[in-house]
Here is the input.
Amino acid sequence: MFEDVLTRLGIASRNSGVHSSHWLPASGGTWIDSWNPSNGRVLGEVLTASREDYDGCVLSAIDAQRAWARVPAPRRGEYLRCFGNLLRNAKQDLGMLVTLETGKILSEGTGEVQEMIDMCDFATGLSRQLYGLTIASERAEHRMFEQWHPLGVVGVITAFNFPVAVWAWNAALALVCGNAVLWKPSPLTPLTAIAVQRLIQQVLAPDGFSGVSTLCVDADSEVGKWMAMDGRLPLISATGSCRMGRSVAATVAARFGRSLLELGGNNAAIVTPSADLDRTVRAVLFAAVGTAGQRCTTLRRLFVHHSRLDEVINRLAHAYDSVPLGLPWEPETLLGPLIHQGPVGEMKRALEHALREGGTLVRGGNPVPLEGSFVQPALVKVPAPIPIMRQETFAPLLYVCPYEDLTQAITWQNDVHQGLSSAIFTDRISEAEQFLAHNGSDCGIANVNIGTSGAEIGGAFGGEKETGGGREAGSDAWKTYMRRQTCTINWGQYLPLAQGVKFDLA
Ligand code: NAD
Here is the structure.
């Protein structure tokens, strides 16, 4: 069954991971394996990029971008509309490949592809709305306005946990804005990247635009490092850990490039005395356990008013007992494996820390006797915030902590290095507004009666502090992929200077 999916997507047992204007044969890269985290078996082998391959990709992207930028934006939007239609046809297969490579459940795998389709639709509409402002000039017979130009070749570095949606957030906007895109996917998910690259080439290649979307797979992070240093790439969009972002940001800044960072989260929710607990528990369960805790927006800290603590913990414990764990492509499964054994060990170590620091294990944390990297989701009760809660452990580990008053809960929520997503559960408007006020949540995303994860593409996605400050997907995120030019035209006879400055020869 899986072989058919891979074949329909053009994936072989051995694949080249380098595509510039065509798929490149071996030229010095190494072979890496793509693993299925549900059973530890190899899905396929991929040839990574050598430095020579990488340079070939950059040159082909530079060349292609010059022609692409001359295509009227609504025509570029049309290419994205066609790509979206190909994704509609491939949704089940590509969603299954996401599930096979990441271990996320099938509805989330296909959900990721739906997010790509949504981005294509959004970009198609945007292709007729890339407009600037006309500004009132202080000088007579002058016209001042802003216009937006493409940047050139945009480098996109993606994480394993959203192997296709995050590329689409970036690529759909970058392409419609007239840029070329060079993609470096996570070495843990190279096959989904190859499948996507094959699909987009079906719309680009027939018109000679292959180089507009290029791909360079690496074995670790070597291509990512070349990209960060490469002055030919004016923008690097990088999604991943704060550690990675710190390195990329410094390198790109040193060459005065632009970076768009989507880094780690340490997200919290607050449950107030008036919260509807049916809604709250459902939302918390999806946010904390969904995607096996491997979303940047996963709920990691839950602050519950002390008057509701026991009830919330009991209900959550019951829900945790009922979560069906198993193979992620089975329809009844809600919890698949972690990406590999590394995060399994990290979760175990974080749990040990939590118990040493005064936490009590309410549920989970035991080994799971299955072949893949499965873990039992864990619920830990803490009397007050403990040091380990300040760390993002990329696994389903939720700390539950009582609070006395809302100001204290908001302060605790904000007291971490990251600032991605946050939520409050309340039926009181004053509590919701306090949470949303300027001195409330300090995160890029603040939700009321919704969990921390599962954003729609229409809004700008991203977070503050060590989450990196980037914004992707909807709203006006497209402006990051363009350069703004302020233009002033003097259509009169005279040369008045701004601010009344006089500079006339006697
Ligand atoms: P990671 O940082 O290990 O890797 C992410 C990508 O960066 C990979 O492609 C990797 O090869 C590359 N990379 C690593 N070090 C690099 C360097 N020094 N220079 C250039 N490239 C480098 O992250 P991961 O384990 O793949 O993903 C999980 C992390 O990503 C979590 O922290 C999660 O919160 C974060 N994430 C954030 C968002 C967001 O939108 N904020 C979305 C998804 C994931």
